[in-house]
Give the backbone structure.
Amino acid sequence: ALAAREAVLASPAAAAWVRQALEPLRRAGRAGYAPSTRERRRLAALGAAAAILAGWLLGGVEVALPLSVAGPGVAAWAIASRRRRYRSAVERALPEVATAVADSLAAGRSLRASLPAAAAYLDGPPATELARLGAELDLGAGTAEAVAAWRGRMRSERVDAFAAALLSQRLAGGDLAGLLRRFAAGAAERDRVAEDARSATAQARFTGLLVVAMPSGGALFAELVQPGFLAKLLGSPAATILLVLAD
């Protein structure tokens, strides 16, 4: 592994290709970026190469070949996971976003000016999204169109609800700042209840995960202690039948 790392670092072209392949993964976590088809293929190739190397080091060609098939899937999962965490961070910050926009409206700004101004009071993914929203507004996009584009990027029911609250004044009028503050209070209460539910069920979820993982973990440990154990186990018809019945 150290030799492969040194070989990549010794070749500027290879190191640049690896950095270019990993760049969409980094942007997916920092800005919710959706990689293009070419970027996904490049990352899948890197994942397959890493899986082949890891499998070869752990168990030889017999392990490397099956892992090479799983490499592209792991790369796609990594992108989806980072984008999902980015979306969750935006959803968790919606109470702060709503409060910041409400304060800006109360200070006399319009909704069009309040959305980018609220980014100054936030950080992380919500600040990135509001800054992007403000950039679209500065380029001449309509408020409704920019908010609709934000909803399309996020694909989140909570963001949809917030967008509906933002645009409600255009249809029905009323106190938008007060509505956003009520939205912030409701969203914060929802997050608190969800966190309490997760805390109350944490032990049960961990126990379930442990029960499910113990057979696989025990089999892998036995294979490390005695190579060929799994092959002998699966080669026995009686053991295979018992494993199927246990599942």
The chain has a mean pLDDT of 82.
